[in-house]
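Give me structure tokens for this 425-residue protein.
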Amino acid sequence: MSEGGVTLTEAPVREPERTRRLKVTWRTLLLALGGLVVLLSFTRAVTGAVDLTSAGAVNAAVALAVPIGLAGLGGLWSERAGVINIGLEGMMVLGTWSGAWGAIHFGNPWAGVAAAAIGGALGGLLHAIATVTFGVDHIISGVAINILGLGVTQFLSKVTFARMPGGGDAQSPPVPKPGTVSLPGAGDWLSTLEAGRWFLVSDVAGILRGLVTNVSLFTVLAVLLVPLTFSVLWRTAFGLRLRSCGERPVAAESLGVGVSFHKYAAVLVSGALAGLGGAFLSLVAASAYREGQTGGRGFIGLAAMIFGNWRPGGLAAGATLFGYTDALQLRRGGQSVHALLLLVAILIAAAAVYQLVAQGRARAAAISGAAAVAVFTVFALTDSVPSEFTSVAPHVTTLLVLSLAAQRLRPPAADGVPYRRGQAK
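Here you go.
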């Protein structure tokens, strides 16, 4: 370019560097799953911790993951519509009580499941009225639901279960349990393969046996709700409208979407799913309702939802991770958790390599590498993990994965933002 007789050279425009991200496909997921199974088999062979891939540990992991996953699905529905649901814990508490009451009153566990969904949905309705209709801060409303759920169930237990034989102020009589299902003919030959302790073959057999034998029908229902949620929210017009309410509610309303209706529907479904998670605790994981049965799983479900980046598949992976580590600490905790240290060290080292080679993030790779060395050093210098540590191992493992996961978390843009019909922005 020439200006005043002086020729100026335009500086080349440099495009901002973009971080390369791994494209998630079915092939990638299957390769990752296969690699994880190989790592588990290697760790089991090196450490002798047979519970890493035993059928009992896998079966327990699924049972422990289900209530967390259901709570996380509840949070996903609500937050995709723009309503933060801290009250999942209280809705789960309502579900534990309602599930036990319904199963006892009607003599059928599935009646208890339906009652739990209704009880949780009532908690969701209160949350929706407070946040959507009256504009109460979502966090304050959620905390109130948690307190209310605990108080209401304590009162109801005293006026119902305390008067029943075998019941009390803080627990119900024994409840009927949903049936279990097994893949015909699979248990015997898978058990034989698992007992052989062959590399990879026995581990795959143990994992499959844990997934296809003595599985509660309630678990099957819970697993089916994951793809169902994806189909409804990402493959239907209703789901598109609901998600638009969590992203740009003003724009959605300008296109004729009933924002309040979709927010109400999402929070009601959220409460019902959390109630189902509570019912699993009182009808499947235990044989009766007990006060304090949820143990903070509603909050853990929220963490699983965030881990999964507000997507059903990632949420299921987060719930499975927590359920698996929790199952290991319940079964020969010291030995299994000690073996898990080796697996965690390998995974963190792999994350470091990926960050350096694929993303070019030298600083992040150095931090991950140092963490891998530290975890491996602890593994190499110890023979077992103290019992005091095993109880918190699931939480520590989850925090490690959350802090080192190579993903960008993106919540819905209008999540938790107050909205009034007709507002300009």
